[in-house]
């Protein structure tokens, strides 16, 4: 057996030994324990540098682990943002001290991370953010508000982008910081979404003192730092590594249609064919990105294609499952029916719209693909050279400041 096959076999054996416990691993504390075990066994941070706690292996080993993990539902949800976005940003542009301090505990699940970019007045146009950080002796003092922050109620640290110079155009006066979420000036309030759960939060910062060595990247270079995080985010979401809640695969939908005798109905056939094509396009595109990653190429802006394909597939498969199940899709007592799981469908129906927003909306993905992948003319940006202080954005709309 070659080394890669041996690695995959070891992963498969390790996972099946524990398979029974995945169903019972509930709660963040248990998930943390699982991550520590995963790290000790050599399966967390497979491609991450060894000197910071990773395994120092290649993309081939990472794929082998994902193959071995197929069919297991691993309790990794609390770590999605840290593993997919914050950690890779720290490894790319963090200082040596930051990498040595933060990456290993992140990979072991000892410290959970969130990403604080969006604000009530700055989502798609995140460069319009108003949370500010002002230099005061040996620290930056942060005041302001963030919103839609996934998982913040469980987090120990987060990456924040804040305005550090309002006198220059909006993209040039932003800085990224590591924030200790346990600081008494940080207030996290969970927001209930339509799944009935609290996936995300609003966060308030009141005179939070952030030491100078918590700046990530350059002071006022936070836009480049944020773009680094967002590129990682789209690849992480798009490849499904951040976790998704698909209602059903094409196969399960087709089985249900067959059970109902609906495969002769042209509109059902057309819907199923469309999903089949979407699923194939998504799998083939991601297979291509994996091959390129093996050759050392980062997808860059093309990560937005995966993200857009997955958001459409998630929405359309939830809608198709609901059509096939009819009212059963909304019945919490209905467990499964002809290849479809009614509870999973109900969950996917309420979760799917969020996929078209989180990590950048479908419209923004299309803009990025148009401008940065296809080379189409850029959207006009009349505010690009105007000092942030003079823009009518967020609360500045009302006050003129
Ligand atoms: C499930 C979920 C998890 C999230 N997690 C996080 C997180 O962890 N951290 C974080 O910082 N944020 C998070 N977000 C927030 C997310 O990034 C924003 O919701 C998103 O960027 C859109 O911003 P907005 O909600 O302010 O909408 P807006 O930016 O106000 O957009 C409103 C509408 O206008 C459209 N639009 C805006 N600008 C353009 C344009 N230039 N061209 C065409 N159409 C445009 C949008 O597509 C959208 O349809 C999360 C959101 C969701 C749903």
TrEMBL record:
Residues 220-374 form the Acyl-CoA dehydrogenase/oxidase C-terminal domain. Its cofactor is FAD. Residues 2-110 form the Acyl-CoA dehydrogenase/oxidase N-terminal domain. It holds the Pfam family Acyl-CoA_dh_1. Keywords: FAD, Flavoprotein, Oxidoreductase. InterPro entries: Acyl-CoA_Oxase/DH_mid-dom, Acyl-CoA_Oxase/DH_mid-dom_sf, AcylCo_DH-like_C, AcylCo_DH/oxidase_C, AcylCoA_DH/ox_N, AcylCoA_DH/ox_N_sf, AcylCoA_DH/oxidase_NM_dom_sf, Mycobact_Acyl-CoA_DH. Gene3D superfamilies: Acyl-CoA dehydrogenase/oxidase, N-terminal domain, Butyryl-CoA Dehydrogenase, subunit A, domain 2, Butyryl-CoA Dehydrogenase, subunit A, domain 3. Residues 114-208 form the Acyl-CoA oxidase/dehydrogenase middle domain. It comes from the Bacteria. Transmembrane segments: none annotated. Belongs to the acyl-CoA dehydrogenase family. This is Acyl-CoA dehydrogenase family protein. It comes from Actinocorallia longicatena.
């Amino acid at each position: 057996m070659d080394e890669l096959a041996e690695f995959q076999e070891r992963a498969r054996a390790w996972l099946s030994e524990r398979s029974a416990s995945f169903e019972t691993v509930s709660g963040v504390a248990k998930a943390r324990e699982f991550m520590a075990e995963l790290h000790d066994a050599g399966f967390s941070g497979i491609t991450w540098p060894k000197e910071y706690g990773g395994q120092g292996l290649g993309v081939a080993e990472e794929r082998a682990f994902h193959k071995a993990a197929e069919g297991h539902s691993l309790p990794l949800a609390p770590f999605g943002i840290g593993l997919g976005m914050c950690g890779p940003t720290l490894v790319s542009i963090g200082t040596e001290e930051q990498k040595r301090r933060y990456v290993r505990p992140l990979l072991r699940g000892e410290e959970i991370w969130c990403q604080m970019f969006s604000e009530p007045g700055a989502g798609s146009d995140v460069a319009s953010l108003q949370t500010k950080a002002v230099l005061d002796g040996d620290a930056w003092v942060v005041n302001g508000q963030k919103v839609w922050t996934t998982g913040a109620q469980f987090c120990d640290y987060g990456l924040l982008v804040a305005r550090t110079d309002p006198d220059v155009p909006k993209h040039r006066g932003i800085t990224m910081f590591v924030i200790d979420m346990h600081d008494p000036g940080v207030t996290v309030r969970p927001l209930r979404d339509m799944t009935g759960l609290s996936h995300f939060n609003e966060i308030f910062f009141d005179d939070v003192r952030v030491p100078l060595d918590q700046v990530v990247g350059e002071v006022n270079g936070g836009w480049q730092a944020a773009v680094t995080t967002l590129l990682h985010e789209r690849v992480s979401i798009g490849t499904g590594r951040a976790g998704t809640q698909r209602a059903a695969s094409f196969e399960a939908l087709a089985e249900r249609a067959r059970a109902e005798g609906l495969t002769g109905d042209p509109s059902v056939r057309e819907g199923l064919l469309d999903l089949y094509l979407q699923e194939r396009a998504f799998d083939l595109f991601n297979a291509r990105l994996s091959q390129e990653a093996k050759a050392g190429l980062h997808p860059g802006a093309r990560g937005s294609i995966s993200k857009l394909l997955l958001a459409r597939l998630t929405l359309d498969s939830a809608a198709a499952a609901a059509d096939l199940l009819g009212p059963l899709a909304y019945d919490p007592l209905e467990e499964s029916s002809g290849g479809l799981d009614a509870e999973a469908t109900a969950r996917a129906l309420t979760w799917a719209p969020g996929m078209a927003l989180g990590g950048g909306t479908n419209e923004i993905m299309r803009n990025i693909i148009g401008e940065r992948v296809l080379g189409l003319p850029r959207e006009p940006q009349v505010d690009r050279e105007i000092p942030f202080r003079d823009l009518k954005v967020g609360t500045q709309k009302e006050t003129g400041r």
